[in-house]
Structures are given as structure tokens and as C-alpha cells.
Amino acid sequence: MVFEIQYDPKIVSHNQLIEAIEDTGFEAVLISGGEDRSKIHLKVDGVLTHPSMAMIETSLQALPGVENVEIDPVVHRIFIAYKLDQTRPRIFVQVIESVGSGRFKTTIFSEGGREHHKQDEIKQYYKSFLWS
After folding, report:
1. What is the domain range of residue 54?
2. What is the arrangement of strands in the sheet containing 37-45, beginning at the earlier edge strand?
3. Name one GO molecular function term (predicted).
């Protein structure tokens, strides 16, 4: 489940919001810092072929407000620069998943995010299991 939060930077900083969300046990990813031009990294699970990458890139660039699309097939990441007032990240996810006809699963990529914490937690449980 993904939620988008719009905030007034005069009242609260994005760092305060991220910290408050993560303190409750959820992952928080800053998609936009409030500028006109926003950037997002998406992770795509599935087999990216040259034709599918070209189709994804063309489909994303056709969206209003999209300024730049870069695809890294080695690490399955897509970088998108866009105008926040013209489109939203949820649209990118829908476009990528529809282009792949359900073969692609798209998520917001964040280094050291929730996936990293999950792996650490799994390792800790495994160690505890071994010691028990």
C-alpha cells in the first residue's frame, strides 16, 4: 500500500515526516522535495528485454510532465525526472505494469529502506534459531 503526503515545508520538514513515519515501523521514501522538477527511482521485477525496455521508455516519455527517463536493465531500475504538477508516481507504476501485461512488478526504490531492514531482521531470527 502506498500513500502520498503533501506538506507545507514552512510547518514541518520532510526529514521530520520521514522520521515520524519510520518510528511507527513503516517505510518512508521522499519522492519530491517540493521543487517543480521531481525525481524518482523505480525498481522493476521481471525480465527486461530490449523491446520491453523500449516500450516502457516510450510509454513513460509520452506522459505529460515527464522530462527524462533512464533505464538500467542490469539492476532493474528506472530513473524518471518529471514535473510534479503534471503527473504522479502512481501513474508511472501503472504504465510500467500495463506495458508488461502483468509480467512486471514495480516498486519505489530506496537504498537501505525497508527491504534492508527485513533482511537484517531475518538474519537475526536465523541466528536466534540456531542458538536455540
Report:
1. 31-109
2. 66-72, 77-83, 37-45, 105-108
3. metal ion binding
